[in-house]
């Protein structure tokens, strides 16, 4: 019997988190990527227009390859845990996250329209934010009718 993609993703994550992390330079490289991504996610929470979700996902992926302790912390975190759970169980993005990201990108675009004199910069930023918004809104949402979601 074939394993559904969401279950396969959970199994891969569990096995990566419980597997022995690599040693030496490889482990430190994964760990550095995890912490740098986490730092960027924290900065992105405060600056409109910078997506935090992608950095959290990258951090969790790198942590699963290097640090069971950081992986557990991320999965049990009040803000990041539900986001990671949704992503690992069907690549889901909550409606609240979609709306927050869309509003943040809109605010960023308005600020750029008032402060950036080069129109080509605004066009590139708008295209990038538009592509990110299209991808994000194309992701399915968690079922909010289920208990415990």
From TrEMBL:
The chain crosses the membrane at residues 28-47, 120-137. It comes from the Bacteria. One of its GO terms (cellular component) is plasma membrane. The keyword Membrane applies. Keywords: Membrane, Transmembrane, Transmembrane helix. This is Inner membrane protein. It comes from Azoarcus indigens.
């Amino acid at each position: 019997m074939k394993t559904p993609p969401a279950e396969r993703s959970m199994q891969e994550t569990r096995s990566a988190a419980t597997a022995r992390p690599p040693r030496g330079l490889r482990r430190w490289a994964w760990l550095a990527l995890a912490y740098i991504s986490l730092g960027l996610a924290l900065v992105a929470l405060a600056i409109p227009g910078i997506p935090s979700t992608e950095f959290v996902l990258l951090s969790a992926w790198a942590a699963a390859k290097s640090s069971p302790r950081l992986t557990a912390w991320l999965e049990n975190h009040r803000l990041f845990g539900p986001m990671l759970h949704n992503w690992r169980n069907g690549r889901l993005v909550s409606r609240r996250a979609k709306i927050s990201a869309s509003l943040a990108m809109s605010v960023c675009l308005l600020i750029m329209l008032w402060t950036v004199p080069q129109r080509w910069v605004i066009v590139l930023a708008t295209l990038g934010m538009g592509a990110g918004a299209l991808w994000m809104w194309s992701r399915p949402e968690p079922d909010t009718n289920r208990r415990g979601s």
